[in-house]
Specification:
Helices cover 33% and strands 37% of the residues. The chain is an alpha+beta fold and 326 residues long. A hairpin with a 2-residue loop joins β7 and β8.
Length: 326
């Protein structure tokens, strides 16, 4: 890891730095202004940030936890210089390029274009150069392919142009750059720089050009416009989070309902067995017929009405009727 960093830079210089902390926009905020920030690789000037105005919004409370999920970074101004020599030194240290049948690869900055040159092995080493034009497309960097030449003389045949593009595609795929936000076609390469930043960042480029062995990129975003976008994003995020919490709550309620099992009578319960037998035999039972009157003449059971035998009552009633007739 250290060697990798050393190949990119060995010295860092900051000539001007301003940091301001505030609680603006209903959240924690850091405003950073950087001037003449220089990264060098030994004696080679690598990257120069002439100006950088950066606002960091909605920063977390460091006392409780550190998470930048809701933090946003707005680049209001950027003037960025990249040295030709620094890029070529990185290319030289990139061993994976050598595994793609390429040798002596380098890049040169001219006044109005770039040029990539080197040698490709197709049985024999074949020298080539490709002219590249730079443009900004909707805030993104666009590298447009110009002429493909054999050395500096004749135009490369189409099959060799396709071979070079195939090597470029394989290299970008090996670095997962095509998945991250690089689009490669037969005519241009479009770089979505924000896809390489694992944070909520706002930066669009306005201008890109070459001058005195440097690639220069300028850009920036309008802060007020970005704050509105950030506010809308936070509202949507909170709404989505609320909906997810509601779904979790309903799932927990359903789970609790399923845990409450209905009360069931055991099959060996006596009442249950009797009811089952009645239901099973219900279809076999004959209709009930009215019973014949019982013959009470020889019965020893005496029926009393109001405390007297029934026959005594009958005699009393008959005697009473005969007296009335008299």
């Amino acid at each position: 890891m250290f060697d990798r960093i050393y190949n990119i830079m060995s010295q860092v210089f900051i000539y001007g730095l301003s940091v301001k902390l505030s609680h603006e926009n209903n959240g924690r905020e850091i405003k950073l202004k950087l001037k003449n920030f220089l990264i060098k690789d030994q004696e080679i000037n690598g990257i120069i940030i002439e100006n950088l105005h950066l606002s960091m919004e909605n920063l977390p409370d460091m006392d409780t936890h550190i998470s930048f999920d809701d933090a946003s970074f707005i680049v209001e101004k950027l003037d960025f210089f990249i040295s030709e020599d620094w890029i070529n030194k990185i290319i030289e240290s990139e061993d994976s390029l050598k595994n793609h049948e390429l040798e002596d690869l380098r890049i040169d900055f001219y006044h109005d274009k770039l040029s990539i040159s080197g040698k490709i092995r197709v049985g024999i080493l074949f020298p080539f150069s490709v002219d590249l034009n730079l443009a900004i497309d909707n805030g993104k960097i666009k590298i447009i392919f110009g002429k493909f030449r054999a050395g500096n003389l004749i135009t490369l045949p189409k099959w060799l142009q396709k071979a070079l593009l195939s090597i470029a595609k394989n290299y970008l795929e090996s670095k997962n750059m095509l998945e991250s936000g690089v689009i490669l076609t037969d005519e241009y390469i479009l770089i979505d720089h924000l896809s390489f930043i694992p944070l909520d960042c706002y930066l669009k480029f306005d201008k890109i050009f070459t001058e005195e062995k440097y690639l220069i990129i300028r850009g920036g975003e309008d802060k007020d416009k970005c704050l509105k976008i950030i506010d809308e994003k936070l509202k949507k995020k909170l709404k989505k989070k609320k909906e997810e919490m509601e779904k979790i709550r309903f799932k927990e309620i359903d789970a609790k309902k399923k845990e409450k099992k209905p009360i069931r009578i055991k099959k060996d319960d006596k009442v249950t067995r009797i009811l089952d037998e009645i239901i099973q035999k219900a279809g076999e039972m004959k209709r009930l017929r009215p019973a014949k009157p019982a013959d009470m003449s020889n019965s020893r059971v005496k029926l009393y009405v109001d405390g007297e035998p029934s026959e005594y009552q009958e005699e009393s009633q008959s005697t009473g009727e005969s007296h009335k007739n008299d």
